[in-house]
Specification:
Distance between the termini of chain B: 26 Å
Number of domains of chain A: 2
Oligomer: heterodimer
Structural class of chain B: mainly alpha
Helix content of chain B: 55-70%
Radius of gyration of chain B: 26 Å
Structural class of chain A: mainly alpha
Strand order of the largest sheet of chain B: 1-2
Order of helices and strands of chain B: HHHHEHHEHHHHHHHHHH
Helix content of chain A: 55-70%
CATH class of the domain at 112-270 in chain B: Mainly Alpha
Number of helices of chain A: 14
Shape of chain A: globular
Strand content of chain A: under 5%
Number of strands of chain B: 2
CATH topology of the largest domain in chain A: MetI-like fold
Strand content of chain B: under 5%
Shape of chain B: globular
Largest sheet of chain A: none
CATH class of the largest domain in chain A: Mainly Alpha
CATH superfamily of the domain at 112-270 in chain B: MetI-like
Distance between the termini of chain A: 33 Å
CATH topology of the domain at 112-270 in chain B: MetI-like fold
Radius of gyration of chain A: 27 Å
Largest sheet of chain B: 2 strands, antiparallel
Largest interface: A-B, 123 and 121 residues
Number of strands of chain A: 0
CATH architecture of the largest domain in chain A: Orthogonal Bundle
Order of helices and strands of chain A: HHHHHHHHHHHHHH
């Protein structure tokens, strides 16, 4: 803080974010840079980058979505096909099936993560000895690369050699090679939910824990005075006061899982058949394996619109939570 | 489970009874142990021999070997025992390990270049994102910017898009600009993704620094930029460091863009690791070794970030 009391000479040469011409032309003018100019100079690079990397490509993609572009047959003349791609997608049963698969994955994984995460948060909130160490351990999976997680779980879930099936067979007596978590139509959708929960239940836990800790003690003390049962306290105090945090966690998780690609792509690559083919995996196949660029651009735009709808709700909720 | 835990604390919820604490602690520790087992299994697999790694029943006790790590870093060719017998004696411990399997080392594998790519792309994009993010966050925090809320929402919304969808036009654009499979291309892309997180997180951190400090500096004759550099930045150092680590973790872990937009030159670790193959499919000890080396920095960062984790994962929405 002592630098504040000494007036140093202005040295604009090392200032970040100042455009060169202004700097070299007249140092006094830089000194007088209005706050508005600085604000503009500071925000512009970020906006420019996002326009170049996000918005320009997006506009290009909107254009492509009205064409028949197929990169594996790029010798074909580029033809504008109007809304044909959108019609094809929205009338395609397969696409609806992928969306259904995605919705099932999103809902079951988020529900499971909320149950496990909230439960863990309640337990950790008891402040037993060493809770901070064990919480850090529990948090580890969510910091890992989803792709790497998907990859190493394929080893853990191998029917013959994997420890998962072996453990299950130890407890239930079912022979370990009699079922395959990633290769069986009946199990694979649950497998991706299971691994996703292993990874992200801690995420819900961490947010819920913040919610629980935001409840002031005096509310519980008042409830004690009124002789409210612990059960009643949970339903009338703990749960309602944690709900905004819970909602935030649910929205974050729902959006992330709607976009899910990496972990599932490596764990099951959409299989067996297409039982775990989430919409992102389907999009990747259309765009980067069949190279149907026009068609997949249209599908991508449909997904954008869906996510944007969700994002709006998300930001509104986020602001509500912040206002508390 | 939760109901039981709540009920048994009827006398006081503010300070749980020792019995409740023990019960809660027991359950949490049980969950923590189950959750860490898969990771421990991978760390252990890295020290197994090829045959121990795929043994049935799965081996918990085994003779540790560094074969997995040697295989990760080398390319080997199988030779006849006669050929190997004629070779001069092995020069190093890893030569010796490889020869026991009737193989000779043909050269280094691609893991080091991939690791270097991860580092360059990770640090490059982190530096750019934090630099741009700090400037923008300061402006959003201190100045009245027209449509600030809309701009902030726009910045965040770029992160809502599914990566596979974003990759389609980026792929076409990069093809035109010759940025496909280049580090520069990946750095720019990751910077664009990270800058949204950086702006939101840093705005939160800068909001918490009292304006009075700067105002005092301005009165003392500082320019805005001097005040930013000498007063605000030193105060925001912790926040900037935490933000940088979050950006680094994102770039480090990212897979979708990497697998779709790189194939060799600029490939990072996540798309590389699953394709470490031996003679019969995936070389699990080597994959596990790569995973271990890849995950260790993340574990360290998690411990370092513990205090700021909540803020980071909620884009600054929840603070403790």
């Amino acid at each position: 803080m002592d630098t504040m009391t000494t007036i140093s000479q202005p040295d604009h040469a090392t200032m970040p974010g100042v455009s060169t011409p202004a700097k070299s032309r007249d140092a006094r003018r830089v000194r007088g840079l209005s706050d508005r100019a600085i604000a503009w100079l500071f925000v512009a690079p970020t906006i420019a980058l996002l326009l170049a990397i996000n918005i320009f490509p997006l506009i290009w993609m909107i254009r492509l979505s009205f064409t028949n572009l197929n990169l594996s047959m790029s010798y074909l003349p580029l033809r504008f096909v109007g809304l044909d791609n959108f019609r094809d997608i929205l009338t395609d049963e397969d696409v609806w099936f992928r969306l259904q698969t995605t919705a099932q994955f999103v809902i079951s994984s988020v529900v499971l993560q909320v149950v496990v995460g909230f439960g863990l948060a309640l337990l950790i909130n008891r402040q037993f000895r060493g809770h901070s160490f064990w919480t850090t351990i529990i948090l580890l999976p969510m910091m890992l690369s989803p792709a790497v997680v998907g990859n190493f779980w394929t080893l853990l879930l191998q029917p013959q050699i994997g420890p998962f099936n072996y453990l299950i067979s130890l407890f239930t007596g079912v022979p370990p090679s009699s079922f395959s978590m990633t290769g069986q139509v009946s199990l694979a959708p649950w497998t991706i939910v299971l691994v996703d929960t292993w990874m992200w239940a801690p995420y819900v836990m961490l947010i819920c824990l913040a919610g629980l800790r935001s409840i002031p003690d005096y509310i519980y003390e008042a409830a004690e005075v009124d002789r409210a049962s612990a059960w009643r306290q949970f339903w009338s105090i703990t749960l309602p006061m944690t709900v905004p945090f819970l909602m935030l966690a649910v929205l974050f998780r729902a959006i992330e899982n709607f976009k899910m690609f990496d972990m599932v792509n490596l764990l099951t690559s959409g299989g067996p058949g297409s039982t775990t083919e989430l919409v992102s995996i389907s999009l990747k196949r259309a765009a980067f394996e069949k190279w149907r660029t026009g068609y997949s651009s249209a599908l991508a735009i449909i997904l954008f619109v869906t996510v944007f709808g969700a994002a709006n709700i998300y930001v509104k909720t986020l602001n509500k939570v912040k206002q508390r | 489970m939760t109901a039981a835990a709540t009920r048994s604390t009827a006398h006081s919820i503010v300070e749980a009874s020792p019995r409740t604490k023990a019960f809660a602690g027991g359950l949490v520790i049980l969950y923590a142990v189950i959750t860490i087992l898969p990771l421990l299994w991978i760390v252990a697999t890295a020290f197994k021999s090829q045959s121990d790694a795929i043994a049935y029943p799965p081996k918990v006790i085994f003779e540790p070997t560094l074969e997995g790590y040697v295989n990760l870093f080398t390319v080997r060719t199988r030779q006849t025992p006669d050929f190997i017998a004629k070779l001069p004696p092995p020069q190093t411990w890893y030569d010796q390990l490889v020869r026991k399997r009737d193989m000779v080392i043909a050269g280094p594998s691609k893991v080091v270049p991939r690791f270097v790519n991860s580092l360059i792309i990770g640090f490059g994009s982190t530096f750019l994102a934090v630099f741009l993010g700090t400037l923008a966050a300061y402006a959003f925090s201190r100045f009245r910017i027209p449509l600030a809320d809309d701009l902030l929402f726009f910045i965040l919304s770029t992160r809502m898009m599914p990566p596979v969808a974003v990759a389609i036009p980026i792929y076409l654009m990069y093809r035109q600009l010759n940025l496909t499979d280049t580090r520069l291309g990946m750095i720019l892309l990751y910077t664009a993704v990270n800058v949204s997180l950086a702006v939101w997180l840093l705005k939160g951190f800068i909001d918490e620094i009292p304006r009075e400090y700067e105002e005092a500096a301005l009165v003392d004759g500082y320019t805005r930029l001097q005040a930013l550099r000498k007063v605000v930045l030193p105060q925001a150092v912790t926040g900037i460091a935490a933000t940088a680590i979050f950006c680094l973790i994102f770039s480090w872990n990212e897979y979708a863009f990497a697998v779709l937009l790189t194939s060799g030159e600029a490939q990072t670790m996540p798309p590389f690791i699953p394709f470490i193959i031996g003679e019969g499919g995936q070389d699990w000890p080597a994959v596990a070794a790569a995973t271990t080396l890849f995950v260790v920095p993340i574990v360290m960062f998690t411990v370092l970030l513990r205090k700021h984790l909540l803020r980071g994962i909620t884009f600054g929405a929840v603070r403790k």
